[in-house]
Specification:
alpha/beta, disordered C terminus, 269 residues, single chain, 38% helix, 8-stranded mixed sheet
Amino acid sequence: MHAIRPTPVPLRLWRVFRLALHLGYGVCVAAWTLHRLPPALQEKRILRWSAQFLQILGVRVHVLGSPPPPTARHCLFVANHISWIDIWALKQLHPMHFVAKSEIRDWPVIGWLAQRAGTLFIERARRQDTGRMVKLGEEALRRGDCLCFFPEGTTTDGSHLLPFKPGLLQAAINAGATVVPVAIRYPSASGGINRAVAYHGETTMLESFRAVLRQRETRVELCFGAPVAAAGLERRTLAHQARHAIVSLLDPAAHKTPGTTAGLPDASH
């Protein structure tokens, strides 16, 4: 198997320069222009900015299955979580607000942009904060907004799928929303898993960013499963169905929690 040649240093520097300009442009738009636009134009601006962000980094998004059209509303996207790239890959495809850990709010520039884009931040260390997020999520879904969250509660290197935490799915049940399962994959050139781009474990944001810069091209696949009507379901059942759908879109042999079957593991509280 041939080793993948890293991105030449001049190209890495060019990417960093372009990214700095792009982030600066995003800050200006978010601070002075975005809130003055009609909601539909705001969404188009965010989608286009996200797509350009990935293009600068050499990230190519490939969509498999049948995603909801950009005009779809009242949806809760549920996905496995591997990298910070996940957010931009989904955001360039469909207007949505993310439920993210509160630490992201403190990230330089990106955290501020996420807040301006309507991200809902959850204090994962505070168990009682789930109730607040369920209420906020339900209100957003009832307004017709689309949300996205990662029910594993953390990232992995892409080689396995953790049990789903079903708490926030209650928002979709209360609002009678549609849950859209999305399996995210980062395939390598050899057909395996591209673990280098994963932002997990002890990997820092800077280390993860450098790993993406070193790759000539990063491929991310968004695999969409059949939507699930949440109304009338119990949240454990909904978590069970969503996880089973995502597992079926991934390699069952490589995406199972140790000690459980690949298809239908228990969902944790």
